[in-house]
């Protein structure tokens, strides 16, 4: 599997061409990685990599196989790379093929761009005449999941642990058990305050209609072959998404991540 390294004055990063997936990003001003990657992640062709920022497209969830679509398990073509002193820009491309048309019989052109420096910006744009859903499935590294507070999620969510039942949300979220929620009225800025690491992480979302929060907790992690049993304590997924309102013609999702 081809991996691309980035090392500029502002950050270090690692990207897999499979899925055009950002695996690591660490600004020079922080001693900890911002993105989480499982110790047991499958780093082999055709297997989803648990960690970083996988792409869910052209569907989200398990409505079809493979789960979360095929974009994250296929090799993307790097069509542009620009290195500057404190920022690196990369652009990847994926188009339909005989393989994708067997799974989803529609032509498409997908382009994913990354701008990596003191902040991290990822933008996914897909041109396709068939409605599609997707997400930038960001795994964030935390010091201890029970010492994290998240704000900017919105006030309504669907609880996937209770059959997608509609629930009212609090202004902030603290996690003490398994969580799998789709926030349906998300704000444009989400903040994660991490007292264990002594930092905050800010995510700015564009073109999203939903925001997913996921942590499998101990019981869920034990059932996953690509996650160590206790690693759930060091991760939280906050996902920029378009799920409940499938998009026609163009799916566009953007996430910008910054740390303080």
Describe the structure.
With 260 residues, the protein is mainly beta. It has a single domain (3-259), classed as Beta-galactosidase, Chain A, domain 5 (Distorted Sandwich). The chain is 5% helix and 49% strand. It has two helices and 18 strands. The chain has a 15-stranded antiparallel β-sheet that branches. Strands 1-2-3 form a three-stranded antiparallel β-sheet, with no helix packed on it. β5 and β6 (88-95) form a beta hairpin. The longest helix has 6 residues, at 98-103. The chain starts with a strand and ends with a strand.
The largest sheet, given as strand count, sense and whether it forms a barrel, is: 15 strands, antiparallel
Radius of gyration: 17 Å
What is the typical, i.e. mean, pLDDT? 95
Count the E strands: 18
Sheet/helix structural class: mainly beta
Number of helices: 2
Tell me which CATH architecture applies here: Distorted Sandwich
CATH topology: Beta-galactosidase, Chain A, domain 5
In short:
This protein is mainly beta and 260 residues long. 5% of the residues lie in helices and 49% in strands.
List the helices and strands and how they pair.
Blueprint: E1 3-7, E2 11-16, E3 21-27, E4 55-56, E5 77-83, E6 88-95, H1 98-103, E7 109-116, E8 120-136, E9 139-141, E10 148-151, E11 156-159, E12 165-168, E13 172-174, E14 179-183, E15 189-194, E16 199-206, E17 210-215, H2 217-222, E18 235-259
Antiparallel strand pairs: 1-2, 2-3, 4-8, 5-6, 6-7, 7-8, 8-18, 9-18, 10-13, 10-15, 11-12, 11-14, 14-17, 15-16, 16-18, 17-18
